[in-house]
Predict the structure.
Amino acid sequence: MINIWDYKNATKVKIKTHDGKSYVGLVAALEDYMDLYDESDPEYGDDNNDQITILTKENRHLGFRQKDIMSITDLSGVSLPQAVGQ
């Protein structure tokens, strides 16, 4: 399984999910599941639910749970096309 915390210093990443889709964007946040939810949540304490959020070139924030990610490629240093109007 992917450890999103290995990408805490990345600025741009490509994320491939288990459903075969790929997403590219700037790393906006890495979030510990236990900081996002409380103990009443049935999945509380499951590190598989830590999340990485990216900002796409379309200016959309997309969040991915660690357990839903097949691979992450660090694209830091690779240019990302600007969204229209920027």
